[in-house]
Design goal:
Strand content: 15-25%
Number of helices: 11
CATH class of the largest domain: Alpha Beta
Shape: globular
Radius of gyration: 20 Å
Structural class: alpha+beta
Oligomer: single chain
Length: about 350
């Protein structure tokens, strides 16, 4: 699938296209900057399941199944969403360098692991919005701590909706009655995960307890875990003090702004689109001083996921469930693998 051109419209002077001699060529320093942006994308359990491919005129994002979490994500849906988020960051980085870009999703049927490519198609003045989102990339991180406020202004929610819609997905806000029913579904899914020793073991492999912050390159360091139990701490791990009562989950969601990103279909292409939309949402939220944490358990359980769609009254398929608010305290950024290890 070829996505619409990523170049911003309405920029004075417009886009200067590539010349007759062929595509614009990127230098190694520019590609390193683009790869640096891609590596800070969010990913399931901070597994960073991508590889980067240098192109003469852009960057390719490849699915790295060696970094999968097969128990909790057997279909690779969350892994593909993660790769889509990395592709979005690469596009933003190129646009911040003054390039008009064009992205292609799942470009080669013969290479299904190639999630997407972004190419430069001309020079243009960077849009202020793209420069802002690019600055947010290293600041964005999942916040598994208590929020100071869960209230999100209507104008901010409108901007978040527009960010998601621009990438071909839809953003829904859970109403109070839906949050109560959603809390029950979420607790059911959490209970099932907590009772699954294989799943718990897999999660523990990605929780880095006692590691030196300067040495860690992936996973979730203990310093980034929540200081309160689930659902504040969105992860079901060995430090979780049992499964919370339904009332506790309901109370937390009742004081939350609960958002759901959904797509019309549920193919790998839709998962890539979800990743693009999710990262655009998260960077937009970061620019507004908002933080987010995920409540994915209800979507990771295939028996519960259709009920989530019904409860929220959304069309299509829910792909990401998250809570958004304003932080009470800071939370550390999770580590990333060295850039040199990511390139083919």
């Amino acid at each position: 699938m070829t996505a619409p051109p990523d170049s911003p419209a309405g920029i004075p002077g417009g886009v200067v296209p590539a010349g007759p001699d062929g595509p614009l060529l990127l230098g190694s320093a520019e590609l390193d900057l683009v790869g640096e942006a891609a590596r800070w994308a969010p990913s399931i359990h901070n597994s960073q399941p991508w590889r980067l491919r240098r192109l003469a005129d852009g960057l390719g994002i490849l699915d790295d199944i060696s970094r999968s979490v097969p128990v909790i994500d057997p279909s690779g849906r969350d892994r593909t969403i993660s790769c889509g988020a990395a592709l979005y960051n690469a596009s933003i980085a190129l646009r911040s360098l003054g390039y008009a870009t064009h992205s292609t999703l799942m470009p080669d049927p013969a290479e299904p692991g190639l999630i997407g490519t972004v190419h430069v198609v001309g020079r243009t003045r960077p849009a202020d919005h793209d420069l802002l989102l690019h600055r947010m990339i290293p600041l964005r991180h999942t916040h598994r701590r208590v929020y100071r406020s869960h209230l999100v202004a209507e104008e901010d929610l409108l901007d978040l909706r527009q960010a998601v819609a621009a990438e071909g997905a839809r953003l829904s806000v859970a109403e109070p009655s839906a949050r109560r029913r959603l809390a029950q579904l979420l607790r059911t899914a959490v209970h099932a995960q907590a009772e699954d020793p294989e799943l718990r073991e897999e999660v523990e492999r990605w929780v880095r307890r006692g590691g030196q912050p300067g040495i860690l390159v992936d996973g979730i360091p203990s310093s980034a875990l929540g200081t309160s139990p689930f659902p504040v701490d969105s992860l079901v791990h060995g430090g979780t003090r049992g499964v919370p009562a339904a009332e506790e989950v309901e109370a937390e969601l009742a004081s939350s702004t609960v958002l759901v990103v959904s797509t019309r279909e549920d193919t790998r292409l839709d998962w890539v689109i979800t990743g693009l939309a999710l990262e655009r949402l998260l960077l937009t939220a970061t620019a507004k001083g908002l933080v987010a944490t995920f409540a994915e358990q209800a979507l990771q359980d295939p028996s519960v996921r259709p009920e989530v769609a019904e409860v929220l009254g959304i069309w299509g398929h829910p792909q990401v469930l998250l809570r958004v608010g304003r932080p009470l305290v800071d939370a550390p950024v999770t580590p990333r693998r060295p850039l040199a290890e990511l390139f083919e």
